Amino acid sequence: MQRILVTGGAGFLGSHLCERLVEQGHDVLCVDNFFTGNKQNIAHLLSHPRFELMRHDVTFPLYVEVDRIFNLACPASPVHYQHDPVQTTKTSVHGAINMLGLAKRLDARILQASTSEVYGDPEVHPQQEGYWGRVNPIGIRSCYDEGKRCAETLFFDYFRQHQLDIKVVRIFNTYGPRMHPNDGRVVSNFIVQALRGDDITIYGDGSQTRSFCYVDDLIEAMGRMMETERGFTGPVNIGNPGEFSMLELAEKVLALVGGRSRLVFQPLPSDDPKQRQPDIALAREKLGWEPRIALEDGLKETISYFRRLLQA
Ligand code: NAD
Ligand code: UDP
Q1: Can you tell me the distance from the alpha carbon of 192 to that of 196, in angstroms, rounded to the nearest whole number?
Q2: Where do the structural domains in the chain lie, given as residue ranges?
Q3: Any idea which fold 3-175+214-240+273-292 has?
Q4: Which of 105, 176, 221, 252 could bridge to 238 as Cys pair (CB 3.0-4.6 Å)?
């Protein structure tokens, strides 16, 4: 049993991680400022004796005593992270500095939830960890992409300079229950639109691709990464290599939900990556992990979640 801090623990991924860690017998401290997270996501854990919730913004220092830190605090959807881009960069960078400082004081192991966005709009396909990326430093996505890149830099400098026990995972598009219905991400958008019978909004011509990982697979990989031997830092790609165009995704969602929604085409946001697919050879080798849940099965679970949410 360990005392584990999860920053961003009331968010989509964080809440699933907290749940898993409590189930495994750990003492979990969930820290969140509720910018995009929601108390509802962790309501079922609040009465658990090994779960504690603290409202705190990671851009400010935090003084707690823990053995391990999962650093997830950061808005993840383009709509949310572009809402207050300065705060997004602060959350990634000041948040990383504060959590690394905490880890250093405690000599605690710390895992950073990085992102496939560090690869930007990639020229290399699929993306391997050795690829340095193609990121616009001054565009509308830069607050997130460059913030996460700088956080990785800080993690590796703390590793080299202070021998801190770091782990970095690069998460590719992940979906599942507890995604925010209005966060503008493609899976939640398409499902909510289909359930409401609204038009399905395809940005651009819909030929851009993404690889979608179901949340349970992702949480399993994050947990395994945290347990790898000291000195193995990553970065490790975590995602599902199954690659789909946005048109294919829309058609799958429509086929599963039914209904009368039409596909409508809207302008592609600037710097929207054209292709994205993780190379997960390293995760297979070092974590003994690969995703198990097919897109169709994960979509069914996610659709039932949103159906219940919209009915409520
Ligand atoms: P989310 O928006 O649901 O969760 C982020 C959480 O962080 C929220 O609960 C939010 O309130 C909290 N938060 C934001 N700023 C904060 C601050 N300054 N202080 C304290 N808490 C703060 O997003 P998510 O999808 O659960 O993503 C979690 C992490 O995983 C993020 O770091 C994100 O960059 C990373 N990630 C997610 C994906 C994905 O597809 N979901 C992909 C790549 C990386
Ligand atoms: N997208 C879309 N319609 C939507 C929302 C998103 O076609 O209603 C597209 C978006 O332009 C991008 C892809 O879906 O090409 C994935 O978008 P998301 O915001 O989910 O994630 P990210 O771009 O960060 O991978």
Answers
A1: 6
A2: 3-175+214-240+273-292
A3: Rossmann fold (3.40.50)
A4: 221
Ligand number nearest CA of 274 is 2
Considering every ligand atom shown, identify the ligand nearest to the alpha carbon of residue 185 and give its number.
2
120 lines ligand 1 (CB under 6 A): no
Pocket test for ligand 2, best of 116, 188, 210, 244 (most atoms within 8 A of CB): 210
Contacts of 209 (CB under 8 A, 6+ apart): 243, 244, 245, 246, 274, 275, 276, 277
Q: Each residue's pLDDT tens digit in the chain (312 positions)?
A: 999 999 999 999 999 999 999 999 999 999 999 999 999 999 999 999 999 999 999 999 999 999 999 999 999 999 999 999 999 999 999 999 999 999 999 999 999 999 999 999 999 999 999 999 999 999 999 999 999 999 999 999 999 999 999 999 999 999 999 999 998 999 999 999 999 999 999 999 999 999 999 999 999 999 999 999 999 999 999 999 999 999 999 999 999 999 899 999 999 999 999 999 999 999 999 999 999 999 999 999 999 999 999 998
| C-alpha 191 to ligand 2 mean position (Å) | 13
Q: Euclidean distance between the first and final Cα of the chain, in Å? A: 37
pTM to 2 decimal places: 0.97
For residue 179, the ligand 1 atom closest to its alpha carbon is: 3
Residue with token string 């395994």: 224
**Pairing of β 166-171 and β 109-115:** parallel
* Angle at which helices 295-311 and 246-257 cross, to 10°: 60
* DSSP string for residues in 191-203: HHHHHHTPPEEEE
Distance 293 CA to ligand 1 centre (A): 22
The finding on whether 91 has its CB within 6 A of some atom of ligand 1 is yes
